[in-house]
Amino acid sequence: MRVQRGPKGGTRICLPSDAAAGRSLGFLLQFKGATLAEVMEARAFIEPPLAGLLARRATREDIEALEAHLALEQRLLGDFESFGLATAEFHHLIVEWAGNVALSVVVSMLDDIFLKHVVRFVGRARKDQFSLNERALANHRTLVERIAARDPVGAEQSWLKHINDATEIIVAELDGPTVLDLYY
Questions:
Q1: What does DSSP assign to residue 11?
Q2: Among residues 7, 71, 90, 94, which one has the fewest Cβ atoms lying within 10 Å of its Cβ?
Q3: Whole-number Å distance between alpha carbons of 63 and 162
Q4: How far is CA 32 from CA 26, 35, 55, 171, 183, in A?
């Protein structure tokens, strides 16, 4: 809601942005003591079926755009923070292009939390960060191959494995912080 003074003033109802909704969800989750592992688990329940849905619905243009995004990720492999942000964008594209608005909105609210963890995790530049980036890119390539092959089961399975692997690595690295830790 916004209030404007003057002759054309008054109260205006405004739709919340995805980022604002995400922050609200993040604060609610931190208040309830949710962990980053639980946020990642929620993504593991939502994203793989959407990857399968995208494998059924993707247009040739969608596949070409995903392939272009993979080329971007390839160029950014050594720029850890930029690569992390690009991988988060890849997740966003998969969810958005699957075509389920309700689930896309839910995931977009988790994106604020996810982006904070990506910047925090990838920005630490572990000794093995480059090989982890290569592994993430390989997983993204596998997903795009499954989507291009119109293989919803393969897409869903490969994306679930990717999210579970990433969750294991990230939670171990960050020692299982709560969502609250991401808002300091």
A1: E
A2: 7
A3: 19
A4: 10, 9, 35, 19, 14
Rg (CA), the chain: 18
pLDDT in tens, the chain (184 residues): 555 666 766 676 766 676 677 677 777 887 888 888 888 889 999 999 999 999 999 999 999 999 999 999 999 999 988 998 899 899 999 999 999 999 988 888 887 777 777 666 666 667 888 999 999 999 999 999 999 999 999 999 999 999 999 888 877 776 655 665 655 5
Q: Please give the Cα distance from 90 to 57 (Å, whole number).
A: 17
- CATH architecture of the domain formed by 17-183: Up-down Bundle (1.20)
Q: Which two tokens stand for residue 72?
A: 């971007």
Residues 6+ apart with CB under 8 A from 31: none
Residue type, 76: L
What are the angstrom distances between the C-alpha of 23 and each of 57, 74, 125, 141?
31, 30, 26, 31
d(CA 115, CA 97): 19
Structural domain boundaries of the chain? Answer: 17-183
Distance CA 29, CA 23 (A): 10
The structure's pTM equals: 0.83
Q: Residues 47, 159: contact at Cβ < 8 Å?
A: yes
